[in-house]
Amino acid sequence: MYSENHLAHALRAASVGREEATFATDATSGAVTTYDDLWSQAEAMAGALVALGVAPGDRVAVQIEKSINGLACYLGTVLAGAIHLPLNTGYPAAEVSYFLTDAAPRVFVCDPAKLDTLTPVAEQAGVTHVLTLDAAGQGALTDAAQGATPLRDAVARDADDLAAFLYTSGTTGRSKGAMLTHGNLASNAETLRDHWQFTDGDVLIHALPVFHTHGLFVAINVTLMAGGAIILHRNFDAAAILADFARATSLMGVPTFYTRLLDQPGLTQAACADMRLFVSGSAPMLLDTHLKWQDRTGHTVLERYGMTETCMNTSNPYDGTRKPGTVGLPLPGVELRLADADGNPTPKGEPGGIEVRGPNLFKGYWQMPEKTAADMRADGWFITGDIGQIDDDGYVSIVGRSKDLIISGGYNIYPKEIEALIDDIDGVVESAAFGLPDADFGESVAVAVVLERGAAVTPETISAAIAPQLARYKHPRAIHVIDALPRNTMGKVQKNQLRDTYAVPVA
Ligand code: MCA
Ligand code: AMP
What we know:
Blueprint: H1 6-12, E1 22-26, E2 32-34, H2 35-51, E3 59-63, H3 68-79, E4 83-86, H4 93-103, E5 107-110, H5 115-124, E6 129-132, H6 140-147, E7 162-168, E8 176-181, H7 182-195, E9 203-206, H8 213-226, E10 229-232, H9 238-244, E11 250-253, H10 255-262, E12 277-280, H11 287-297, E13 302-307, E14 311-315, E15 329-330, E16 335-339, E17 352-357, E18 364-365, H12 369-375, E19 382-390, E20 396-401, E21 406-408, E22 411-413, H13 415-423, E23 428-438, E24 442-451, H14 459-466, E25 478-482, H15 495-502
Parallel strand pairs: 1-10, 3-4, 3-5, 5-6, 9-10, 9-11, 11-12, 12-13, 24-25
Antiparallel strand pairs: 1-2, 7-8, 8-18, 13-14, 14-15, 16-17, 17-19, 19-20, 21-22, 23-24
The structure holds methylmalonyl-coenzyme A and adenosine monophosphate.
């Protein structure tokens, strides 16, 4: 099936001959989607896209709520040989405008409620087709799919051809489109399926967003490649997820999922009796959370480490010892080393910059060869910007980051993006955004601002000025007006000092 299309073939193979098996159960309505339903819908979507003129290599951008038809749109894009470009549903028009202009997609699919706002944005970016898809899976795209001739033979694509763009912010401000190939996605999901022992008997509780690697290329691709099933939650509701433990086998989440579940009195060993695997990633899980989880459930959370550009790099073992506070060992096929800024490996046992190499590595940043070259060494090592340490057993711990990044509830927030908006406000001299410990999200955004003398600017006016331009999760939770930013002798802003000054004890 789809033997000419590398990723589609890999995703479909496990369910061939089992078309009536369940792929998804909707957590709220109980509606069941079989594998036949899913792929039929994907073929219809692919037919609609081809009818709109989508050709191999074209981008299909989506900013849509999570739904089965949304997943079918992803798969339909792959079948059509095009490139799937999902956008965070929280991005306001100002942010969407950047992505559409940069990626120049042939088609943009958005929520009907945003059509009036986003149509002019898309037109300005030169997008020729704007369609809709709502949370119930209805809209112009579904209508077009119903009227289209389904694409039964997937468009031929090799392992090296592009399958997806995921935008990831840069430390210098502008977001970069990470180009992921069919081979990247297929090889990584296959490795994870085998490493975590996913089979067609698995039922994964799926509560992650599907516009990032974690929710889409890990959770969905692994399930498809195993021929398993998901319970589809549109958002994270701790009580509803806990209730599903009785009919599921596995959960993938960010640390916030686990801290919120720990607040549920019903979280007991008995409640987890049917679950075989809890996976965490995207952000560091505190040792305290690991230990509390072990104590309450009898399970050890399996922590793993990845990046948009690399998919998953390391994982604690399924069968062997899972070491809380580490992200485990390099996955099969992935090489990992610690090195200094020049690429010289660091002495054994000492911290160093994490670099990775393998079939999981992306092809580069879209139309930014200089940024690709800055992060990718000539001999293929990718510089992650994370600082790690490796213990005597080979387990990797992430001990810091050389990149200026805040991770809040599993979402990456680049301080530079916030600082640039604040610095643009009349009366602001300069600003520094930094992360503070947060009991729910791990980190939250705080900002220190220096004002011109007598400027009529307040934390409230700053919030109001940046609000329309930034997704809600990036909004500063605290804004401090100060006389001068602390700097070292080289003139570099000392964010550690700001973090120490403004940290509030976490409950
Ligand atoms: C929601 N809010 C947030 C966040 N999420 N603020 C900061 N950080 C966040 N992550 C805002 C909401 O807009 C709201 O603001 C207020 O916080 C409370 O919202 P609440 O309803 O409690 O939040 P939620 O809807 O329950 O979402 C929390 C969440 C969500 C479930 C943790 O953020 C989430 O799904 N995170 C997962 C992100 C993820 O998939 N990351 C993977 C990417 P107000 O009420 O004031 O308007 S990284 C990746 O893919 C790499 C490769 C990897 O390794 O996995
Ligand atoms: P993203 O750019 O959204 O793909 O986020 C990737 C970054 O998330 C990595 O470079 C790490 O800094 C961080 N990350 C992912 N998984 C973990 C983890 N298990 N522990 C600590 N940090 C993590």
